[in-house]
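Q: Protein A?
A:
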Amino acid sequence: MAKPQHHFEALEERLAPIASGFGLELDSVIGVKESGMQIVRVIVEAIEPGASVDSEALADMSRAVSPIMDEVDPVDGEYFLEVSTPGAERELVTPRHWGRQIGRLVAVKLKDATKLVGRVESATDFHAVLNVDGTPTTIEYTQVKKARPRVEFGSEE
């Protein structure tokens, strides 16, 4: 069983500057249990929106994280450490996640069951503006049930 979440907050504070030193931004540290195994996921992404993170940067980050995990000891018992990127279709949860999607297509399901697909035109701390079929549509984050980027293939030309 995982220790309370505040231990992950302390871990995030320690890991953020380390990630920055590798040209990465710490997205989150989460604990999950899969197939009976406790996993601590350290999720990082490139500081520059649209840039990719190579396997060497992930390996460097993993090596730097291990001693801090031993020191902070964020979970009881054994765990598996996973350092990864959020993936192309990660859920958009924070204003920063939305801001990184400017110019990209997203699918949104609102709490009232409305479903929208549009391109993010702008994002603030409280809402995003999507271009939905040519119409600017403001989406308040408090009304979002689930939102994910849409993977686009090919060109629009």
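Q: Protein B?
A:
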Amino acid sequence: MARDTSRAEVGRVMAHECGRVWLRPLGGGCEWAVSPEDVEPVRLSESLSPLVAEANRRSAEPR
């Protein structure tokens, strides 16, 4: 996971192509491209909370 500093959003890194980093929102959705200089790594402690929230959301969805 990485933080897009230009948008102040965290996303899952999906690809590095054509000089851009492609991120996808943690809850799913459309990917967006960002310049590598606008990307910073997310510490493990920061990344666990969104992952737990995503897992909780999925477990609460009706089947």
